[in-house]
Amino acid sequence: MRSFLFVSHATNVMGGPRSWIGGLFSRSGNKREKYLDYRLSPLQEQRLQRLQERLQVPFDETRPDHQEALRTLWLAAFPDITLKGLISEQWKEMGWQGPNPSTDFRGCGYISLENLLFFARTYPASFRRLLLKQDGKRATWEYPFAVAGINVSFMLIQMLDLYSAKPKCIPGINFMKLLGEDEEAFDVLYCLAFEMMDAQWLAMHASYMEFNEVLQVTRTQLERELSLEDVHRVQDLPAYNLLYQFAQETG
């Protein structure tokens, strides 16, 4: 498996918008992209359609299944602490912006909660390590875990151009190949992107106001890895070492 090298990057303090959600890529439309034509297989079309259907589901705090998903996320994060309610100051401990997490989902929808739950269930040790900021020398002002997770979902959706009928750039095309091999490719890629973001955060010695820059560097690194020719599964990405090695150490 390839070694993983982070892109070196000089940091600048950036004043972000009032809300973290979706504030990063408002200027990305100014870039000129080289569009490619790629014909999807029937299986890829089917899986892309199902993924796009997930993107259309807003978080609805009145739906019992959405409420239960939130409770499940809390239990995964803090199994020994009883949740007092779906609106509670306790949620800030997980990194939500206020006592009602439902307000933070407006920028990305229910899929961002699904991503967090998938991370917690599939890579529980990595999930808790990032939640509790257990690795490396941490900043005095750390990024809020849950809201950062929503931003990672938002970044991936934009980077992969998932609202389009089919991808028009190499990273998006290669992602469709991954999706053809594994229907959970987006969710696994989310876990990997979250790990990459945290590793970049540590490598850049970043603090709260530099989160947007860290996420942009993470996106650039992920685009480069998704542009490699010999990537057929998410597990083939060089950065997968971040998830794989930790799973091996704790398995």
UniProtKB/TrEMBL annotation:
The protein, known as: ELMO domain-containing protein
Domain ELMO: residue ranges: 65-226
InterPro entries: ELMO_dom, ELMO_domain-containing
UniProt feature coiled coil, ranges: none
Species: Cannabis sativa (Hemp)
PROSITE patterns with a match to the protein in the record: ELMO
Pfam families xref list: ELMO_CED12
